[in-house]
C-alpha cells in the first residue's frame, strides 16, 4: 500500500519548497524535451515563487504530495465553470512508477466531482511520451494540437488532453 498525503500550499515557505522541487525535477527530467535556456525561462515564468503566488491569486490550487512523510511531488489545478484545468503534475524521479501519479490524478478527479465538474483538461508536451502514456492510461484523450508562444523566442508544442469523468 502506498503511504501518501496531500497538503494544500498556503504559505511562503511551502511555496518556496514547491519552487525548489520544480527546479530539481525540471532540470533532471526536461533536458530531452527542451534546451537549458528554455527550462530556465519556463522555471522563472511558471514555477518561481513569484509565478506561483500570481497563479494562486488567479485561482490555481497547489498541493504538495508527501510519501512516507517526505515531499514527493506537487500538483496544481484551477476549477473553472465547465472544467478543471490540471496545470502541473510533477513527481521526484525516484518515486515515479509506484502509483503516486495515479493517486494525484485521482485527487484531481475527486476534487472535480466534489465541485460538480465532469471534465478535466491538461496540456502535455508532444514528446513527453511517459506523461502521455500515464494520461492515456488514466482515460485522457488527445483533443487537439497546440503550439503556444511563451515569449523570449520559445514555444510550447503540446497536446490538449481531456477526460470526461461521468
Describe this structure in words.
The chain is an alpha+beta fold and 166 residues long. Helix content is 38%, strand content 36%. It has five helices and seven strands. The chain has helices spanning 12-29, 36-47, 49-57, 100-114, 129-137, and strands at 4-8, 60-67, 70-79, 84-91, 119-125, 141-151, 154-164. Strands 1-2-3-4-5-7-6 form a seven-stranded mixed sheet, sandwiched between helices. The relative contact order is 0.15.
The largest sheet has its strands arranged as 1-2-3-4-5-7-6
What is the highest CATH level, the class? Alpha Beta
Number of helices: 5
The count of DSSP E runs of length 2 or more, i.e. the number of strands, is 7
CATH topology: Aminopeptidase
Strand content: 35-45%
Question: Which overall shape is indicated by the principal axes computed on the Cα atoms?
Answer: globular
Name given to the CATH homologous superfamily = Gcn5-related N-acetyltransferase (GNAT)
Straight-line N-to-C gap = 27 Å
Structural class assignment: alpha+beta
Average residue pLDDT: 94
Largest sheet: 7 strands, mixed
Helix content: 25-40%
Order of helices and strands: EHHHEEEHEHEE
Please tell me how large the radius of gyration is: 15 Å
* CATH structural architecture: 3-Layer(aba) Sandwich
Low-confidence stretches: none
> How many domain regions?
1
Oligomeric composition of the shown chains: single chain
Amino acid at each position: 500500500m502506498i503511504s501518501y498525503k496531500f497538503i494544500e500550499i498556503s504559505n511562503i515557505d511551502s511555496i518556496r519548497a514547491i519552487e525548489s522541487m520544480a527546479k530539481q525535477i525540471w532540470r533532471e527530467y526536461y533536458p530531452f524535451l527542451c534546451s537549458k535556456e528554455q527550462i530556465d525561462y519556463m522555471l522563472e515564468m511558471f514555477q518561481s515563487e513569484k509565478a506561483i503566488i500570481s497563479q494562486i491569486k488567479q485561482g490555481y490550487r497547489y498541493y504538495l504530495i508527501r510519501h512516507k512523510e517526505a515531499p514527493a511531488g506537487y500538483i496544481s489545478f484551477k476549477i473553472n465553470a465547465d472544467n478543471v484545468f490540471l496545470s502541473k503534475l510533477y513527481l521526484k524521479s525516484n518515486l515515479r512508477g509506484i502509483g503516486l501519479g495515479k493517486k494525484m490524478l485521482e485527487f484531481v478527479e475527486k476534487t472535480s466531482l466534489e465541485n460538480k465538474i465532469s471534465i478535466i483538461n491538461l496540456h502535455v508536451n508532444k514528446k513527453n511520451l511517459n506523461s502521455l502514456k500515464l494520461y492515456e492510461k488514466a482515460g485522457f484523450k488527445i483533443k487537439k494540437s497546440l503550439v503556444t508562444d511563451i515569449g523570449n523566442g520559445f514555444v510550447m508544442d503540446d497536446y490538449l488532453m481531456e477526460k470526461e469523468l461521468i
